[in-house]
Amino acid sequence: MATARTYDPEALRAHRRRRDNSRRLRHFILHLILIGLLCVMLYPVIWMVFSSLRPEAEIFGDMGFIPTHWTLENYVRGWTLFGNKTFGLFFINSLVICIFAILGNLIACSMAAYAFARLNFKLKWFWFAIMLGTIMLPIHVQLIPQYIFFLQIGWVNTILPLVVPKFLAHDAFFIFLMVQFMRSLPPELEQAAVVDGASYWQRYWRIILPLTTPALVTTAVFTFINTYNDFFGQLIYLTDIDRMTVPVALRTFLDPSGGQSSFGGLFAMVLVSIGPVLGFFLASQRLLTKGIATTGFK
Amino acid sequence: MTTLASDDAPTPRPAAVERTIPTDRRGSALKRAENRAAYLFLTPWLIGTIGITALPMLASLYLSFTDYRVLSPPTWIGFDNFIKLFTGDRRFIKAIWVTLTYVGWSVPLVLTFSLIIAVALNRGLKGLAIYRSLFYVPSLIGASVGIGLLWKEVFGERGVINDILALFGIAGRGWINNPTFALPSIIALNVWTFGASMVIFLAALRQIPESYYEAASIDGANGWQRFRRITLPLITPVVFFNAVLQLIGSFQSFTQAFVVSGGRGGPVDSTLLYSLYLYQQAFQQLNMGYASAMAWILLIAIGVATAILFWSSRFWVFYGDR
Fold first, then answer.
1. Which of residues 83-102 of B touch A (CB under 8 A)?
2. Beta strands in B39-175 (DSSP E)
């Protein structure tokens, strides 16, 4: 790949000048293409935003793209569509699961990662290989016995089947992510603490964990997005209306082909439902890109 | 690399291992302490791996050879589930074809799109961070039920797609209710979320030294040649990485087919993805033994597909000068 030739600096400079002029034009065209593509891609979402803000009767009419009558009635209707329950209940249910899932992943995955990245122990590479293997494992081969087990101990229709596995580091991908990060920290960091007589727990808790913050943020954000968007697990385990989360409620009550719902209410609540994910992403974006940059990938 | 070949008995609890090593007693005591600490840190993960991964997998393997309908205990029927799946279940065969079509279109399309956009963005454009975020937005929300419901309307009879087609004088149709176009609509939704692999491509593209391109363009290489001869070879390990991720993910797709088809996989089973059919067997018909057999077939299928990809990588993935 790398040829060891040297180039005449004059020729190089002339070449750069020529390139800069044509580059400006090409960049302009490229910007146009990319913006056009983005408009096409995001058009359905933008259409949904406008549809949610116009009266129900105008959604599928020839009323133009921008609403003529602005209204929030769809949001009110969608929010209170569930008899004596409101959408707020499903939000709280989702958020409770997300909070525990994030806590579980942060604690359990970082502990396992610390052992894999910074300690020597017997059978280390055997367990590490197992851990990598479980990342690729489809959930289907564990799902049915898990469900039967959780059913028998009375955990169905509680959040426990969705939350307890996180405290047992079931999302091995995040272990891997943190191992990659912790390995890059210099060994001298801990040696000073060893001289001071710090225990392994103190080395993990006081020294390594604070320095792992970018990977922890990445883990927290992706755990939130995955858990909040997760449908399969919540569909299976949460059937009681009081336990339902946002995705399950959306599907159960707001699918217009299945129920008495309205399109306006549907679009309004879909937007409300994707709000937290977008907000969480935007708020953490700076830390997140730092995490992506230092761990090599998402 | 040494620990796996260590001479001690493979007991997971190092505290139980009592061995007297004549030399360097203090060193081995430290080693034992480190060993014990490591296993304490690993305890939650070990419990999880054994309790909610390994044991359920074994149980699932056992159930796949039984007739089990939850209400009565499982009865051993040997290979009957597997025989019935491949010889007597037309929906199963249909689900395999639907899934292979879905994977076969999704993975190449996602890889192509994400690579093209990443290369375009990597040319020193202004506003790279904004573009990257906006292209990533569909990946954030694409797996959600909300977007599935939106998609159903967008590709519905009165949806946006038909409004756009009407501008060009083309009469639209209900894409989602049409057996020919329902699956392509879901594939389109998967391709819509190419942003995740684009971010990974972008990170890799930035590692390629600018000097390679400068040297090549002085030698008179045009844009296509620079891409073909420099970018593409250097990026193949990441293409491979993204291909593995997309392959494993697409095989297990569930939510969007479920939402768009109202849980039925219709019309005429045209969106009956493998996971969806497995869900129907397990949780609607409570045919747990049958569904367990399906789960193991899926595991083997994903394993084989991934193995083929790994094997093929020696012919097209470039790992530096060797």
1. none
2. 66-67, 75-76
Residues B165 and B298 placed together within one structural domain of the fold: yes
**Of the residues B30, B63, B96, which one is the last residue of a structural domain?**
B63
Cβ-based neighbour number of residue B119 at 10 Å: 18
Type of residue at A38: L
On whether any CB of chain A is under 8 Å from the CB of B235, the answer is: no
In this structure, are B148 and B292 located in the same domain?
Answer: yes
How many whole angstroms separate alpha carbon B229 and alpha carbon A33? Answer: 25
Q: Do B18 and B118 sit in the same domain of this protein?
A: no
**Residue B309's CATH number:** 1.10.3720.10
Residue B73 lies in a domain: no
With contacts defined as CB-CB under 8 Å, which chain A residues touch B248? 136, 138
The fraction of chain B above a pLDDT of 90, given in percent, is: 53
Among candidate residues B63, B95, B111, the one where a domain is terminated:
B63
Q: In terms of Cα–Cα distance, which of B25, B69, B41, B23 is closest to B289?
A: B69
pLDDT band at A64 (very low <50, low <70, confident <90, very high): low
The alpha carbon dihedral of A50, A56, A58, A60 has a sign of positive
B253 is a domain residue:
yes
**In which element (H, E) is residue B200 found?**
helix B195-205
The structure's pTM equals 0.86
For residue B15, give its domain range: 3-63
- A173-200 pLDDT tens trace: 999 999 999 998 888 888 888 888 889 9
Distance of CA A209 to the CA centre of its chain: 21
Highest mean pLDDT among A95-99, A261-265, A276-280, B317-321: A95-99
The torsion angles phi and psi of B66, rounded to 5 degrees, stand at -125, 165
Whether the predicted pLDDT of A259 surpasses 60: no
CA dist., res. B180 & res. B158, Å (int): 18
The predicted-structure confidence for A199-231, as pLDDT tens digits, reads as follows 999 999 999 999 998 899 889 989 999 999 999
Residue with tokens 């289907």: A140
Does B145 contact chain A (CB < 8 Å)? yes
Contact B140 A281 (CB under 8 A): yes
Nearest to A43 among B31, B145, B160 (CB): B160
